[in-house]
User: What shape does this take?
Amino acid sequence: MGVLDAIVSMAFRDEPAGRVVVFSGDRRKRGYVVRSEAEELKIKSFLKMFYFAHFYILILGMSLANAWSTFVIHMGRMGRPEGHLVRNMKHWSWSVLCCGGIALRLALEIIQEGAAELCLLAR
Assistant: This one.
């Protein structure tokens, strides 16, 4: 997992006060001092989980969008596609609700647990 390690290592920097973790999205590049090696490993593992879930959801969304756009492109060859479109959209909606909803709920639970741990570490 070299790519995830590279992305996570960009969040850490060395300062005179010690090792500092800086989360992306902060314009002023403020950070939090990491007190020990164990805390740094916990934060790194949380960031790896977060980025893995983030990239997985992005790739899944792009794949679904590609499949749907391919379907729309080839609709003209079906003659009267209205019934076919409604039927397929109904099946697609249920599959996205079930699979995507479960994946999103699990990802949000993991992120909330990790954020709670990080809040405890920041104190």
Remarks:
- The first strand starts at residue 12 and ends at 15.
- The radius of gyration is 21 Å.
- Residues 68 and 74 are 10 Å apart (CA to CA).
- DSSP finds three helices and three strands in the chain.
